[in-house]
Write a structure and sequence with these properties.
The chain has 129 residues and is mainly beta. Helices cover 15% and strands 56% of the residues. It contains one helix and eight strands; from the N terminus they run H-E-E-E-E-E-E-E-E. It has an eight-stranded antiparallel sheet, with no helix packed on it. The longest helix has 19 residues, at 2-20. The termini are far apart. Bound molecules: copper (II) ion. Copper (II) ion binds next to loops.
């Protein structure tokens, strides 16, 4: 009996830790490796903090890019398409911004990285709770 209780407790702890982890997406954009983190996992309706880090082909942090986040939800019954933009500001080796999801459901996120006149994109979907 005691052993089962301990096992359950350990399981709960493991599940709790898994859920407590930040939301993270890693993708390639041209020669860049891009990590995107959000402070809520799953992301929530309303404000979410987003952190973006970009590494070049040598693994060095890229801090001189212009980074913009477009996020949108396609039209659905009773709701026109929604499109928002956020500009990310560089702080240290990361780009920070807030994204404000106005409703729950599937959102498309497009991160645009412009450097030396060239733009690369990272696209992914987020399930907002
Ligand atoms: Cu909607």
């Amino acid at each position: 009996m005691k052993r089962i209780t301990v096992a359950l407790f350990v399981l709960f702890l493991a599940v709790g830790l898994a859920y407590a982890k930040d939301y993270m997406v890693m993708k390639k954009a041209g020669n860049y490796t891009v990590h995107v983190m959000m402070d809520k996992n799953p992301p929530v309706t309303g404000q979410n903090k987003m952190e973006i880090s970009i590494q070049d082909a040598t693994g060095a942090d890229v801090t001189d890019a212009a980074v913009a986040v477009d996020y949108s939800m396609p039209a659905m019954p009773g709701m026109p398409a929604m499109n928002y933009k956020a500009k990310a500001e560089v702080k240290g080796s990361r780009y920070l911004t807030n994204v404000d999801f106005s409703m729950s459901g599937a959102w498309n996120v497009n991160i645009k990285i412009t450097r030396a006149g060239k733009t690369q994109s990272v696209k992914f979907n987020v399930d907002v709770s």
